[in-house]
Amino acid sequence: MSTSVQNAPGSGTDTAPGRPIGELVFALLIVSIGVLGFVAGAGIQTPPSASDIGPRAFPFAVSALLVLVGAGLVLQVLRGHRGAADEGEDVDLETGTDWATVGKLAGIVLLHAFLIVPLGWPVAAAVLFFGAAWSLGARPWWRNLVTAIVLALVLQFVFGGLLGVSLPPGFLEGIGGFGG
Amino acid sequence: MGSVDNFFLLMEGFTTALQPMYLLYALGGVLVGTAVGVLPGIGPAMTVALLMPITYTLEPTAAIIVFAGIYYGGMYGGSTTSILLNTPGESASIVTALEGNKMAKAGRGAAALATAAVGSFVAGTIATVLLSFVAPYVAAFAVQIGPVEYVALMVVAFLTVGALLGSSVLRGLASLGLGLFIALVGFDSLTAQQRYTFGSPFLADGIDVVLVAVALFAVGEALYVGSRLRHGPIKVIPVTGGWTTWLRKDDLRRSWRPWLRGTFIGFPVGTIPAGGADVATFLSYASERRLAKGENKKQFGKGAIEGVAGPEAANNAAAAGVLVPLLTLGIPTTATAAMMLVAFQRYQIPVGPQLFESNSALVWALIASLYVGNLMLLVLNLPLVGIWVKILQIPRPYLYAGILVFAVLGAFSVNFTPIDVIILLVVGILGFFMRRFGYPIAPMVVGLILGPIFESQLRRSLAISQGDPVALVQSPIAATIYVVLLVIFALSLLLKRRQRQFEAMVAANADAPDVVRGTVQSSGTTPAVSIRREDTDR
C-alpha cells in the first residue's frame, strides 16, 4: 500500500544522493525497539485471574507494529527512498548540518539540569539562556547576559511568585515575591 | 435533548464566559495564541503543552478557556507569518501560503492580511455556530455506543492520524508506534503489573505525557532549527496605510464567496479524521483556483486574493470542526486537539461521550468563549497587526534560547525533579532525529495520549466477548464505522497524494515567471487547464 505512494513524484520521500547511514540507523532503532518490546514483554507478569486478554497482548501488538514498520523503513532507505527533512521558516535546508551547535545546546540543557538544585532555578535558567543564545550565534555576549538575567528573574517572579509554581529560588530565597 | 435546551445551555455558557475574570483569561489566551502562531518554531500544540504544568493553580474553567484561546489564536497568527515573512523556498512548499506571500511582495500585503483576518473571523464564527448545533447531537449518539464501537473509532483515528499527518505513511505509522510504546511504560491500569519499567522506580509511574510532548515539540524543534539555522537578517515585508483602507470594495467582492465556501469545506473536513486543517486548506485552494474566471484566474500563483481568503477561512473552520470529535467522543485528530485532551485529563474532567452530560456547564462555557475569542482575534489582528510584525523580528537565537528555557521550566514543573529535565533532553534528541529524517511528530503525541484509552476499551470489549476478536467487527454500528471511515481514509490518502502533485506543480509554475518575464502568460494558464481536466475524472 505505502510503497506505491512513496514512489509517487513529489511525495514526501526523495532519492537524494549521499549515504543515508543515520537514517538507516534510525530505522534499525525502530526495529530494535520493537524487538525489545517482545523480549521485555515476555517478562510481564500475567495474573491468573485476568478475565481479559491480559496486560501482555497490547504491548506485543505495538511491538509487532514497530518491527514491521521499521523493517519496511529499512527496506525503503536501502532502496534509496529517503525521508524529507522537516521544513520551517527558520530552517535553511541548503546548508549542511551544524553538529557543533546541536552538541552545545544539548550540553547546556544537561548542565542546566545539574544546576537547578545547587544554585536555584533563576541562576540555572540564566545560564541556559545565555549558553543557548551564544551557541545559536547571538552576539555581543554582554547583551545575551543581560537578557538572560532579566528573563530568568521575570520568569521566577511570574511563575514562582505570582502563580505559585515551586521553583527553587536559590539566592533569591527569602526575598518576597519570588516564591520558595 | 432539543435544540431549545441547547440554546439555553449556550446562553448559560455565555453568562460564564462573559464574566470579567474569564474575559481576561480568554484575552490572555488569544494573545498568547496569536503570538505563538506568529512566531516560527512554536505552535499551539507546543504552547498548550508548555503551559499545562505551570497553570496548575488555575481552576479548570479558566484553564480550559485559556487553552481554547490559544487554540483559536494560533490559527490566526500563522497567516500573518506566511504572508509577511520573506523566506525563500519555504513558502512555495505550502501552496496556500504562496498567494498571500506573493500579494505582499506585490505591495498588497495589507489586503492579504485583512482578507485572512476577516475570513478567519467569518469562518470561525459560522463554524462555532455549527459546532454548537452539531456537537450535542453527536454527543447524544455517542453516549449510546459501547466499547466495541469506541475501539472501531479509535482504530480509524490511529490509521488516519498515522498515515495522514505527515508526508510518508510508513514514517507516520512508526511515529504512532513509538508513541504507543512510550505510553505502555509504567503500571498497567487494569492489573497493576509493571510493563517496560526495567526495574527503574522512575519509569514505574510512567513517562509523563506533557514531558514527552514538550520534549518533542520544543526541545526537538530548538535542536533541529539550531542544526540548520537560517542566518542573516529577517526579511519582513512592510505593510503600509491604516487598517481601515486595507480591504477595498473590489477585494471584498472577490473575498466573501471564498470565505463562505472555505467555511463549508473546512468544517466537515475538520470533523472527520482526514488529516486536519491541511487537507481543508488544500481543498479550498484547489476549488477557488478552479472557480476563478478570467483575469482573476491568471493571478493564481502570483497573488490571487481568493487563494488567501478561501484557505484561511477553511483553516479556521476546520479548527472548529476538530472540536466536534474531541468534545463528543474524546478522540483528537490533530496534535493540538490531543494536547487539549490532556488538559481535560489533568483537570480530572472525564473526556469521551459523557462530557456533554457530566460537565455541561464547562463545555458550553468553552464554546461560548470561542465566540468571544473570535471577536477578540479580529480586533487583535486588524488594528494591532503591527505588534505581531514586531514579534516576527525577534532575533532567532533569542527565540530558540527562550523556547528552551520555557521547555525546561515546564518539564521541571511536572514533578519538580531535575531528572525530568534529563528525560526531556533525551526525548528531545529523539524529536531532533525524527524531524531530520522526515518522521512526523503529531502521530507520536496522539498515540501517546490515545494509547492507554484504546487499550482499556479494547480489553473491555474482549472481556465482554470472552476473548473472541470477531466481536470487534460484529456489532452493526462498529462494522459501519469501519466501512465508512475506511472509505474516508482511502479518499484522504488519494487526496493527499493529489495535493502533493498539485503543490509541486503550482510551486514550479509560480517560480518560473519571476525568472523569465515573457513566459508569464503561457505558464500562468497551463496549470489551470490541467487542474480542470484532473478534477473532471474524479
Percentage of β-strand residues of chain B: under 5%
**What is the gyration radius of chain B calculated from CA atoms?**
23 Å
Q: Any idea how many domains of chain A?
A: 2
Proportion of residues in helical segments of chain B? over 70%
Q: Which two chains touch over the largest interface?
A: A-B, 91 and 92 residues
Report the C-alpha radius of gyration of chain A, rounded.
Answer: 24 Å
Query: What is the global morphology of chain A?
Result: flat
- Runs of chain A in which pLDDT lies below 50 for 5 or more consecutive residues are 1-16
Explained architecture:
The complex is a heterodimer of chains A (180) and B (538). Chain A contains six helices and two strands, in the order H-E-H-H-E-H-H-H. In chain A, helix 2 runs antiparallel to helix 3, helix 4 (99-119) packs antiparallel against helix 5 and helix 5 (121-135) runs antiparallel to helix 6 (141-162). Chain A has helices at residues 2-7, 21-41, 57-78, 99-119, 121-135, 141-162, and strands at residues 13-14, 82-83. Chain A folds into two domains: 2-83; 99-172, no CATH class. With 180 residues, chain A is mainly α. Chain B is mostly helical and 538 residues long. Chain B has one domain. Chain B has 24 helices and two strands. In chain B, helix 7 packs across helix 8, helix 11 (249-271) crosses helix 12 and helix 15 packs across helix 21 (442-464). Chain B has a two-stranded antiparallel ribbon. Mean pLDDT of chain B is 84; it is low at 88-93 and 513-538. Chain B is globular. The chains are: A mainly alpha (180), B mainly alpha (538).
